[in-house]
Amino acid sequence: MRTSVYSCLRFIYRHTPLAQRCVHLGHDLFKSIKWHFKQSSFSKFLTRWVHPVQFSNLDSIRPISQLFGTDRGTGIQEYYIRKFLTQHQNSIQGRTLEVQENLYSKDFQKYGMTVDILHVEPSNPKATLIADLTQLNSLPENQFDCFICTNTLNFIFDLPSAIEGIYKLLKPGGVFLGTVAGVTQISRYDHERWGDYWRFTDKSLEKLFMPLFEKTCSITPYGNVVSAIALLQGLAVEDLEKTELLDKVDLDYQVTLGIFAQKPLPS
Ligand SMILES: C[S@@+](CC[C@H](N)C(=O)[O-])C[C@H]1O[C@@H](n2cnc3c(N)ncnc32)[C@H](O)[C@@H]1O
After folding, report:
1. Are 217 and 96 contained in the same domain?
2. Ligand 1: which atom is nearest the Cα of residue 165?
3. Which of 115, 121, 151, 250 places its Cα 20 to 30 Å from the Cα of 24?
4. Residue 99 near ligand 1, beta carbon < 6 Å
5. Helix 17-39 crosses helix 2-15 at what angle (to 10 degrees)?
6. How do residues 76-112 score in pLDDT, each as one tens digit?
């Protein structure tokens, strides 16, 4: 009986385009509801409640989360990125560019500000500028007052060309607000797409940015041994009992680094 109902449904599905469309729509709807639920604070709270952190258990090779803690709450890198951008929020204005989506710029919207989205993949519907930072001829010149480029340079092999690209995109006086990872695990998602190549320190960033941006460039490291372990284990900010520890900086454990670089005005 069960088999015949199943065969009957399969026959209808195979021979009725409307049934196929309904099944696909239902599938897409289910995927979208699941995705939105996973992004919700409630789902993150549930994950932390069901899988609480055992701080004494450091002899497992499985991290607590393999998603940088973003399935449990606010990721450690996101915490530092927001801190860096907040410190430079006055520079987020005018014609602003962000990579992939308006994840951070939307929190700093102000009067007269417009946001463009740069992406390497033409399939991204949010992208208004399809370009590769290392391919100078794919980039417009002197266009942006601000370029928010979070956690992207780790995934670009040819860094000197990418920094030339950044310089080309900015208007004279325009500001680059970038963040990169120092101590961190591989980002599997990015590694399988464009490649995860580099880990940075304040010194490597100075050497990379100084030649073009000279005195207008400053590097701000964030992190310490607590935030480094939290990030490697995939803990969220909400998992930590003493979140104020995240703000202590130990230069030997540079977890996230902020780059402020301003394209000089013509003299
Ligand atoms: C981890 S995502 C960062 C984006 C996001 N705004 C964030 O912080 O969550 C890494 C980004 O690097 C971008 N990327 C990789 N290679 C690139 C290249 N050669 N030029 C421009 N973008 C590149 C990818 O498109 C991807 O959006």
Report:
1. yes
2. 20
3. 121
4. yes
5. 100
6. 999 999 999 999 999 999 999 999 999 999 999 999 9
3-state secondary structure 182-210: CCCCCCHHHHCCCCCCCCCCHHHHHHHHH
When pLDDT is averaged across residues 25-47 and rounded to a whole number, the result is 82
**In angstroms, how far is CA 33 from the centroid of its own chain?**
22
| Residue 243 belongs to some domain of the structure | yes
What range does the domain containing 7 cover?
2-38
Residues 140 and 16 both lie in one domain: no
Q: Does residue 120 have its Cβ closer than 6 Å to ligand 1? A: yes
Question: What is the pTM for the complete model shown?
Answer: 0.86
Regarding whether 236 and 141 lie in a shared domain, the answer is yes
In a domain, 46, yes or no: no
pLDDT, one tens digit per residue, over 185-234 is 999 999 999 999 999 999 999 999 999 998 889 999 999 999 999 999 99
